[in-house]
Each structure stands twice: as structure tokens, then as C-alpha cells.
Amino acid sequence: MSSGSLMEIEELRLRYRTEDGEVFAVDGVNLELRRNEALVVLGESGCGKSSLAKALLRTLPRNAYPPSGQVRLAGENVLALSEEQFRRQIRWTRMALVMQAAMNALNPVVRVGEQVAEPLRIHRRWSKHRAMQRAAEAFEEVGIAPDFLQRYPHELSGGMRQRAVLAMALVTEPDLIILDEPTSALDVLTQASIMNVLKRIKNERGTSFILITHDVATSSELADRVALMYAGRIVEVADAELFFTRPAHPYSQMLMASVPHLRQKEHPKSIPGRPPSLIDPPSGCRFADRCPKRFARCSADPPAANLRPRHWVNCWLHSRGDS
Ligand SMILES: Nc1ncnc2c1ncn2[C@@H]1O[C@H](COP(=O)(O)OP(=O)(O)OP(=O)(O)O)[C@@H](O)[C@H]1O
């Protein structure tokens, strides 16, 4: 399986217009994703994770400005494509989205099989028969018996609905599937079985994933890489094992110390304070206010320090250079 680069995100920015001012939801994000890699974008609520997914897939609310920066998919800057080109060439066929609320992604009055087949009917112009056959295969891949194709969304359990939405994303065999909190509304056993489905698809198909979540435990199931987001920016990106065992940024360290473990003697430690507002965010390191290790330099923006191959951290503690 090729391990070359699939997507390069450079200086990606997304702002929303609001009555209180502009919200800088994604504020200069740089990331690289390889083929057959699962990148987890981890972060607290409101840090801009969903906005990052929306900017990548261009599923933007009306009050968003067009995203700026570059998003190169297999070398092509897809941000430069027109909406029409993006819809025809990229969304669903090469990049698909699985959202948190499966019920919202499904039309309640259309049988799920037809909905799963729809991307093939629209984007590939396949016949109904052929598309339904492929939909049945996709159902099997996600662990749903094909006779469920004939059911309506309300006849499926929450976990089944989420699998059906996953089948809809898989049906066109895209290179990349972006999952935005795909299991957060589900119980832990259903979460685990969906994570297993994702792992199997990754191994069998070589698909790449960007998994967006606030949940460290879920993310560790699938992650090859972890990018930690804070206040619109990525503060650390590393291989998953390294991130989970030896994180370098003080925020990453505090986040890992806040995760409860079974049979752990000490109490998990919460992180005091709150993230800054994304309307007029502070200059310098955005975590500085909450950071026990802050020092004078933190009032300037920390550059990205390359600690080892593919391990970047935006923190002055790790920067050898001058500001
Ligand atoms: N349509 C919108 N208009 C204005 N502000 C928005 C809009 N959508 C999101 N925001 C703001 O942008 C920031 C980032 O939100 P986003 O939903 O991307 O974060 P998140 O990390 O995905 O959070 P959550 O996990 O709670 O969804 C937040 O300050 C949020 O209030």
C-alpha cells in the first residue's frame, strides 16, 4: 500500500461573520495526511474541529467567508476549484463526510438503501440496479444485513443508522473519509464496534481517515497520527503512540493527565481556565493563560518546532530559534 502523501493542508483559515465580530474558527492550520493513514484531530469543544472539516469539504454555513490557504488532494489545490467543480470531482467521490448526528444525514421518508446508493446514482450516473448492488456490498462492509436496505431510518437503531451513514460514505470508494464525532451519541459497545469497522476498512481498502473528536479514548482506537487543536490552531502533531505516551506541548500533557483510567489511584486532573474567545483572539501563544510553564516569550506567537521526523509542536519551550 502506498504511504505517499494524500493531502497537504497549508495555512488554512475559516472565519464566520457574527453580530459580535468575526470568529476566527480555523486560524492557520498546517497538516499532512498520508495514504492509508488515520489522523485524529483532537480538541476541546469550540476549538474549531468541525469548522476544519467544513472547510475541507466546503459544507459551509451562510455566514462563513470562503476558506483561505491551500488544501492539496493528491497534489491538486482543491480550494481553488469552483463550487461546481468541487461538487462534481471531489465531494463524495474522493472525499466523503460522516457526521455526528446520523439521523440528520438521512432522509426519514426514503428507504436507507436508496439513500446509500444515491451518491453512485448522482456522481457516477449508475443504474438503480447496479447502485443498489453496490449499496448492499457497502452494507455488508459495515456489518448490516442487506435486507436492511429496504428499511426506513426510524426502523434502525442509532448504531445501525451510523453504520448506514458510513456505508453511504464508503459506497463510492473515496480516498478520504472525514468523520466528525461519528460515535459520540452512541453507547461504548456500539462505539467500539464502529471503530472496529473503520479499522477493518482502513486495512482492507487503504482508505485514509480524518477523525474529529474530543474523546481521547475513542481516538486512540484508530489513530496513526494525532493533531491537537486549540483555539483555532494545531498545537502539536505526532505519531499516535508518541502523542499518547510522551506528548510535548504543555496542553497535550495536561489533556492526557485529564483522561480518567480504570484502576488509576490519582484523580484525573482538570485543566483550570477556559480557552480564549475566537473573536479577537489574543496575540502570542493562545494557551499561555492556562499554562503553568508560561514565560516571557509566550507573549509572541510560538513557531512550529520539529522535534523529530513528523513531530511538530508549537511551543517556545521546544523552540531553539529566536522569535
Ligand atoms: N456558523 C457559525 N457562526 C458563527 N460562529 C460559529 C459558527 N459555527 C461555529 N462557530 C464558532 O466557531 C468556533 C469553532 O466552532 P466548531 O464548531 O468548529 O468547534 P468544535 O471544536 O467542532 O466544537 P464542538 O465539538 O463543540 O462542535 C466556536 O467559537 C463556535 O462558536
Q: If you compute it from the alpha carbons, what radius of gyration comes out, rounded to the nearest whole angstrom?
A: 20 Å
Helix count, DSSP H or I runs of 4 or more residues: 10
Low-confidence stretches: none
Intertermini distance: 41 Å
Helix content estimate: 25-40%
Order of helices and strands: EEEHEEHEHHHHEHEHEEHHEE
Quote the beta fraction. Answer: 15-25%
In what order do the strands lie side by side in the largest sheet?
A: 6-7-8-3-9-10-12-11
Largest sheet: 8 strands, mixed
Indicate the mean pLDDT.
Answer: 91
Q: Which class best fits the helix and strand makeup?
A: alpha/beta
Attached small molecules: adenosine-5'-triphosphate
Shape category:
globular
- Secondary structure tally: strands: 12
